[in-house]
Every structure is written in structure tokens, then in C-alpha cells.
Design a protein that fits this description.
Length: 212
């Protein structure tokens, strides 16, 4: 519960603005950069942070959405690139050893097969799924996806992800129902984002059960 409270605290962007003013831009940049760039930090808010930032930008002169959006696109791209090249650096070690950090060699091989089957659209889809969007660039780098191919889909994903959620918050985040039930809305966004993971997990369990 304490961790959840800390995450909700990061989403109180109006409080950050009161304390730090325009430095809030830098704080939001770093959160998105760390969430996408450090494979060991997959639980920082991403979708919900963009929504909250958009909602606050609609009611304050401190955050300009037309500056915020390109700034956070840049943060996501820089984070992804860092993650990709860290994965590339550890590629040989992962393939040589059974496990590096929380990555098993079999997970890398399965993900490589998934990338080969579904192509670069996997990179775009991963952008909208918490935890997966942090791990996907690392695995793309550690796997066999060439950087030239990866970066095209990475850019497309960032351009779709940041504006869509930020503008969703900008236009709908200050509706009375949303304002009065902000935490529930945030949990709803997180739940919807995680739904593809649960569906994939259930499908795998059902497939495994049928094969027994």
C-alpha cells in the first residue's frame, strides 16, 4: 500500500507545480525517461502520468501541452534507446548464461520468436502496456532485431503513445466525475493497460492445459 501511495503521489502534478514551478517539466521528463529506459524500474507510472499531466495542463499556465508532448516523446525515445543498447550489451551474457537479472535465456528466445512472427508492430503495441514497454526495448536489443528496424517502430510508438494519453487527459481529465474520482480513474487506466497481459497469460494457461 505504501508503494501505491508513492505512485499516486507522483501523479499529483498540481502539487509538483506548486513546489517546483516550471521544473515540473524536468521531473516529468525524468520519470518517463526512467520508466522507459531502466529495465529495473518498470513500475513507475507511464500511462497514468501522461493522463494526469494532460489534465493539469488544461487548467494551469505552467504546463503547455504543445511543449509537454514533444518533450515527453523525446524522453520516451531516449529511454527506449538506452534500454535497447543496454540489452544489446548484455545480449551475449544472456545467451551464454541461464539468467541475467530477471531474464531467462528461454524468455529471450521466446520473445525473439514473437518479434519474428509479429514484426515491428510488437514494439508499437508494447508501448501501451505497463511493464512490457520497459522490458520490450531491452529484449529487442538483446535479441536479433536490427537497430534500423527497431528505431522506426520505436518512434511511431512514442508518437502514438504520448499525444494520445496526454490529450485524453487534457480534454477529459477535468470533467467533474473524473476530478472527483481521480484515483479510481487512474487505477482504471492501469487496469485497462494491463488487460492484454492478463489475456495473454490466460491464453497461455489454457493452451498449456489443452496440450497436457
Amino acid at each position: 500500500m505504501e508503494f501505491i501511495s508513492q505512485i499516486i503521489g507522483l501523479l499529483q502534478i498540481d502539487t509538483l507545480i506548486q513546489q517546483y514551478g516550471t521544473l515540473t517539466y524536468a521531473i516529468l521528463f525524468m520519470i518517463i525517461f526512467i520508466e522507459t529506459g531502466l529495465v529495473v524500474m518498470p513500475l513507475l507510472p507511464g500511462d497514468s502520468l501522461l493522463f494526469a499531466a494532460g489534465a493539469v495542463a488544461a487548467t494551469t499556465d505552467v504546463l503547455d501541452p504543445w511543449l509537454l508532448i514533444p518533450l515527453l516523446i523525446a524522453a520516451a525515445l531516449l529511454g527506449d534507446n538506452l534500454n535497447y543498447f543496454v540489452g544489446k550489451y548484455f545480449s551475449a551474457q544472456i545467451k551464454k548464461h541461464e539468467r541475467i537479472l530477471f531474464f531467462k535465456r528461454e524468455y529471450l528466445l521466446e520473445t525473439e520468436a514473437f518479434y519474428a512472427k509479429h514484426g515491428g508492430k510488437t514494439v508499437i503495441m508494447a508501448r501501451f502496456i505497463p511493464i512490457v514497454r520497459t522490458i520490450a526495448p531491452f529484449v529487442a536489443g538483446a535479441g536479433s532485431m536490427a537497430y534500423g528496424r527497431y528505431i522506426l517502430f520505436c518512434i511511431a510508438g512514442a508518437i502514438l503513445w504520448v499525444p494520445s494519453l496526454t490529450l485524453l487527459g487534457y480534454f477529459f481529465g477535468n470533467l467533474p466525475f473524473v476530478k472527483h474520482n481521480f484515483e479510481l480513474v487512474i487505477f482504471g487506466i492501469i487496469g485497462v493497460s494491463l488487460m492484454p497481459m492478463f489475456v495473454h497469460f490466460i491464453k497461455n494457461k489454457l493452451s498449456a492445459g489443452k496440450s497436457v
